[in-house]
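Figure caption, in words: inputs first, then the predicted bound structure.
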Amino acid sequence: MSRRVTLNLGFEGHLQPVTVVIPDDEPTPWQWGERFEIVGKPTPRVDGALKATGAARYTYDISLPGMLYGAILRSPYPHARIKSVDLSRARRLSGVRAAIRMDDTVARFAGQEVAAVAAIDYETALDALRLIKVEYEELPFVVDLDMAMMPGAVSVFENGSNVQRPTVNEHGDIKRGLAAAAAVHEAVYATPVQTHVSLEVHGSVAEWDGDELTVWSSSQGIFTVRDDLAVYFSLPHNKVRVITEYLGGGFGSKFGAKPETVIAARLAREARAPVKVMLTREGEHLATGNRPDSLQKVRLGADRGGKLTAIELVQHGSGGIGAGSGSAGPFLSLYHSPNLRTEETNVFMNTGPSSPMRAPGWPQGCFALELAMDELARKLSLDRLEFRRLNNSNPVRALEFDIGAKLFGWKEKSAAPKSSGPFKRGIGVASAAWHALGVSGPQAQVIAYRDGRVQVVIGTQDIGTGTRTILAMVAAEELGVELARIECQIGDTGYPFSVPSGGSMTTPSTTPAVRQACAHLKEKLLRLAAPVLGAEPSDLEARGGTIRVRFDPSRKMSFEDVCRRIPGDSLSAEGERVPNYEGYRKDQAGCQFAEVEVDTELGIVRVLKVVAVHDAGQIIDPLTARSQVNGGVLMGVGYALFETRRMDPQLGIMVNPTMDDYKLVGPLDVPEIDVRFVEVANGFNNTGVMGFGEPAHVATAAAIGCAVYDAIGVPVRSLPMTPDRVLAAMETKA
Ligand code: MOS
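Bound structure (dioxothiomolybdenum(VI) ion present):
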């Protein structure tokens, strides 16, 4: 059964009533301007103290009686036939309880898992690895994108070319668009491989009980880990349980059961004891996935007025032995052109596999497109922000440009004279986009106990963004009680199903399920209170820690008093996340402004300030929302200036797989970050939430790239913008 509700959709100044059809048991969606008691108020994390004191249990902290420690032997060669693996000496070492080899007979990247052992302590396991005898037959390899693309290049997979069939998107006629242009810009842009570097490395603890498997895993998708393990071990899904209480970061590489998780479970089965396998930092860099690199040939054309007539991208990129390096997303959606063509080609090489990483493909594409936009704007003598406004067709972004420009001081900074000394300042702006509206599937259970406590139970996981806090706030709001009354239980496949924490969809997918469950629980509580208050349940509301008569709030009972009347032990209700309603806009906008200072003698770039303006639906907790954007920006600063996987072309190995040599953003590199949200009443679900973990990261490196161009007058077309590249670019100017 369904009903119709009319919602005010759009954003400030652009709201329109829209009638949407929603299922009967769905609570009326929160409306634009809804008055909340808890939602929307900056709220510190409910588990902040647990994290700060070390009491929060991460997979790394799991310790079971009799638990063994696993270690993994990795291929030292980028390409080799594995002729034999002799585990016998390792097995004989005192303290070793299990030793296994992988099924693969060919290693295709340096770092690929070859064998593994479990022992009574980690040091013994490392000793045992040294006793494993592997006979390799080294094969030719390729670890460089240009070389992998050459005719006659070494084949990564025996059966064919490294260069895959391209994916083409087009509309209009690109030739005609270029011919019609008053100015054309063409250049090649390059971005590096970025590794994930989650603070908590990948890893799992596996324990068998007969044919039942329990796994604690550092995972952003407990149900996908469960499903992968069930398939691997041919077990019914209900015989595998996966738990992730706390997770030290996940950006797309922690979805399913990765090799280390399967290895932990295999070793545990052989040893008949629980086994913990946490990767080394080196293993983390080499084998757990990465953001592919790219070479992007861009052609843009615009008419005299600054309207784009052509957008063209020919992209190649490598995810190592993995696929999915495409970067066309921003080209297809940030700016409008009647003629557009993108061609994305994945190239294989003998390096670790790619994995999704915070808006897969978008930061790459955004950097190339936005820097090209600036280069074309210069040819047309147009203000770069004005050029973007002219070609932007998203009304929310138009507003975001205004808000951001004002906050940032675009006009004033544009007019300011460039310094004559060695330190040059520059500014840049770039657009972001995404589509994080959430999906159906999650289910939640909410239980009220006779002592007035409420438990929210849902099998989602917190990748570190504050999921427990968000869900508790939604539950407290719906039930009209204080936050402290709510306890969230998450991170266990024994709980009702939820989706992986990816695609920026955790909050928009889980909050509506929890809210619906709370609405159902509330109905039951109102029915308990109604006879006491001498009113119909439909005349009652739950607010301010009470259940009260709507038109006569003096007739009320405390929430606790109502709970005391629960027959038996507790009262429970369920809710589900229903499919998205019709909604307002499926695309999310966003833009970021950056100011940099370049030391033109040393080539060092410092990011001084970033203003980030992003679409948001209903913001549940402004504090965690801002943290989310701060994180996206910081990761973008690292991508712009520091992070890169360096391969030795002679040896085919990564030369910087450590925290020392793979440079991340440090405290002194952090710019001033100003975050603003434009609230959009999207009307897709009952909480009106949109995610922004990914869009917050899309535009940062691009905006910084544009700012560096502005500062030194020449574009640095390759990331990261290291001092050598900045200086080399400046040489071309002279
Ligand atoms: Mo993300 S790349 O969906 O974790």
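The chain has a mean pLDDT of 97.
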